Amino acid sequence: MNIENNVELEMQEKVKSFANLMMMYGCAIREVKTKLEVLDDEFSVRYKRNPIATIKSRIKKPASIYRKLKKYGLEPTEENILTGLHDVAGVRVICSFIDDIYMVAALLANQDDITVLKVKDYIKEPKENGYRSYHMIVEVPVFFSRGKTPMKVEIQIRTIAMDFWASLEHQLRYKKNIENVEGHEEISAKLAECADTIAQTDRQMQEIKRMIGEFNDLS
Amino acid sequence: MNIENNVELEMQEKVKSFANLMMMYGCAIREVKTKLEVLDDEFSVRYKRNPIATIKSRIKKPASIYRKLKKYGLEPTEENILTGLHDVAGVRVICSFIDDIYMVAALLANQDDITVLKVKDYIKEPKENGYRSYHMIVEVPVFFSRGKTPMKVEIQIRTIAMDFWASLEHQLRYKKNIENVEGHEEISAKLAECADTIAQTDRQMQEIKRMIGEFNDLS
Amino acid sequence: MNIENNVELEMQEKVKSFANLMMMYGCAIREVKTKLEVLDDEFSVRYKRNPIATIKSRIKKPASIYRKLKKYGLEPTEENILTGLHDVAGVRVICSFIDDIYMVAALLANQDDITVLKVKDYIKEPKENGYRSYHMIVEVPVFFSRGKTPMKVEIQIRTIAMDFWASLEHQLRYKKNIENVEGHEEISAKLAECADTIAQTDRQMQEIKRMIGEFNDLS
Amino acid sequence: MNIENNVELEMQEKVKSFANLMMMYGCAIREVKTKLEVLDDEFSVRYKRNPIATIKSRIKKPASIYRKLKKYGLEPTEENILTGLHDVAGVRVICSFIDDIYMVAALLANQDDITVLKVKDYIKEPKENGYRSYHMIVEVPVFFSRGKTPMKVEIQIRTIAMDFWASLEHQLRYKKNIENVEGHEEISAKLAECADTIAQTDRQMQEIKRMIGEFNDLS
């Protein structure tokens, strides 16, 4: 066998092992989703309400993984992906109310097979552009044929309104590398303003929910 | 065979034919959902965006069907359900933006196998309590083993924000037959107020979307 | 508050706590399904094949739970359901090949959060009527808001052919309480005969798979 | 703008228009699936049984489309795909019993918006290698934003046993370009043999179903 063949074989091995790694992150997402669905089922039956409106998930695209590793000055190896990146597997939990966000986060953090590695509360301290969301990096065990493996998952928890805002902001950011800076700044300003209206709506809805709840307890 | 047996047989027949009828409405929902998914797929590929965020559906519960027939002074027969009720099959379409609502409605109305029986635009003219939504009653053909059958479906189209408001309002209305009128009125007032904040948010988001779009066209 | 009210309240409490219990079994099913899906994902990527063709699940109907408790001479209490019954939550795994059955069973049994309570191998020793399937009773931890709870789940693992046979046999058994014993016996005999043809098919397919595999390894 | 830019723009246009075409085939699959689900729902409620066990679907991969066009001596244009290929969109219907295959086929063929372009009955006349299945090429209308478009879909209808056999045969064919012809031929012979055992099983199961049915009618 000559050198060329060796290189090709090595390439094939790398592609295969990358696919395995992505599969492992996909399975970690399955585990986190199941944990969330169990909690939502329980609340639905025990308290007649669903704290979770929707669960979405995504695995980071190869190009984004590569870019992020480069940004951190890391070689694109399996080892560096596993240890250096925290958001290859992402789960987004959309709640109806602000207090559900903190409840879901606390219930997950309390499970003895989950390790919380990091928390960032962008609801208490919104980003400058208006972004609001609760972020957790957790480690969850996944049972593969060769044994139990801890996998990292980023969980973002936010209200319907925060999610709606974020999706618009994402569309804008996506077009960032465009010259017309003036138009861009005007939209950014509008978006920041809108983020405030949305936060206000969330607080109003939370307040109404509280009132309906109290009202209910009285009667 | 005696009278008692006859009565029982008749009862069994009625139960069976009611189940058939509900199955038929369920299939009508499948057809409408497919039409909506086709439109959303097309927009997703052709214009890189999804006008529809979620599609939900429900079949009216037997008790609600019975109550509504009674309210209209109609006997609970299959015939009366088919001709007298328009919302046994219900599909709810949640859009991101107000202009998507009108686009989806127009695209459905234009399909030559759909007959629009009635339209109510509660966005242009909100209900007194603040309710906003676009309602259509359509008739859609469904192919059963015995042939093509036109079935009625109520389609409600609204934004994410309108939907969120409606779900809270529904929770409140559900507790309506409760004495503490004062608390109830206070919450109703709050909800009406909140409906305005939400409508304002929808207009802001629509405006930002328009600006991003223009911005995009320029560059 | 009088006695009648007390009785009614007690009834309501029982209904609610039964619903909670069934929800808990439903969540245990979710956990087992996720474990199976993870294994299938892994094989799909790592070995380019899916050992599992389908996963089905069911929760035992209240009437069946009641009948089984009665048969065992147990009162219909929550405690007796949890300790006395093993098949309230049922998961059925349909595999393509016989050896996949044993592999899936072994991989589950090896997971350190699963306890295998009982195994019955109706493939090695088929029932008299021809029934073939591998049964496991396992205990799996589920994380509810109040903490981790071990729940029992019955897992039945069988090939597509065994499953097909069982569904026909089930249809027949369902009509058991019918007088025409002669016809019944004739069909039972035919079914037992057919079970043998099916077992033979499974062995042939397994053999072909083995040959394709070897063939593959050689080249 | 120079020539290079023109070429690139043209390429981009082609990629986009190919994606649109594949989306259209995907929507045609949605329509056919809905038609099948409606029929299965109806039978499930009206006759308490499901003629359809599973529905699978796939869109032909770009590489396969290209190869097939080349084989037919056609240029890879959108027009040639639409007129020259019949199996870009494929739906596979898995039935429990042989007679369900013919019933499903007849019910589809009878729907006045479906045009049957071609039928091949590989059950009555199996392929030499043992392949059994009922194939239909149909044209079904799909409602896009620009109007109703007829789209071609290939529908393959077969029993569970036929499907199982075909999946094994597919695995073998996949490894065809391998030298060890001897081993290959031995497996092919085994597969052909197994196809007969499977056809026999299907006939036995069909016969038992018929007997259960009659048995039922008598009592």
Walk me through this protein's architecture.
The structure is a homotetramer of 219-residue chains. Chain A is α+β, with helices and mostly antiparallel strands. Chain A has six helices and five strands. Chain A has helices at residues 3-46, 62-71, 78-84, 98-109, 160-173, 181-218, and strands at residues 52-59, 89-95, 115-121, 134-144, 147-159. In chain A, strands 1-2-5-4-3 form a five-stranded mixed beta sheet. In chain A, a hairpin with a 2-residue loop joins strand 4 (134-144) and strand 5. Chain A is flat. The relative contact order of chain A is 0.11. The model of chain A has no long low-confidence stretch (mean pLDDT 89). Chains in contact: A-B, A-C, B-D, C-D. The interface between A and B is large, with 38 and 38 residues.
Alpha carbon gap, first and last residue of chain A: 83 Å
- List segments of chain A where confidence is low: pLDDT < 50 over at least 5 consecutive residues: none
Mean pLDDT across the residues of chain A is 89
Helical percent range of chain A? 55-70%
The structure class of chain A reads: alpha+beta
The number of E-state strands of chain A comes to 5
Provide the succession of SSEs of chain A.
HEHHEHEEEHH
Strand fraction of chain A equals 15-25%
Largest sheet report of chain A? 5 strands, mixed
Count of individual helical segments of chain A: 6
What spatial order of strands do you see in the largest sheet of chain A? Answer: 1-2-5-4-3
Largest interface between protein chains, with number of residues from each side:
A-B, 38 and 38 residues
Q: Assembly type of the shown chains? A: homotetramer
The radius of gyration computed from the alpha-carbon positions of chain A, rounded to a whole number of angstroms, is 21 Å
- How does the overall form of chain A come out from the CA principal axes? flat
